[in-house]
Amino acid sequence: MKLTPSEWEIINHRLGAPDAIAECLVGSEGFYYSHEQTVDRAMAIESPDDIDWSSELDREIIQDCCLGCTLFGDMEDAVALGEVTKGWAMAMHKAAKSLEVKTGAMVTR
Known about the structure:
Order of helices and strands: HHHHHH
Number of strands: 0
Largest sheet: none
Radius of gyration: 14 Å
Strand content: under 5%
């Protein structure tokens, strides 16, 4: 699956917190990987090319990156303060919608 740079930015934002990803996934129903396996794999995903879409673990990690997304949390304030442009914010919202279609996971906004 091909990701746009904006879609990757959304995923990569969450990948910066591999322990948080593992904490959300480990122990959830149907998830059979350890904390260490999950953290190690999340840390190994450094570009869209590193994602193995045939791997259950990779798909779970990417879905958590969508569900646990915090990129949009302070976006309105960042636009108001001029830290990011309104155009960038709108592009990220569009990318989030596209990412939801591609991954089947809701992007938290």
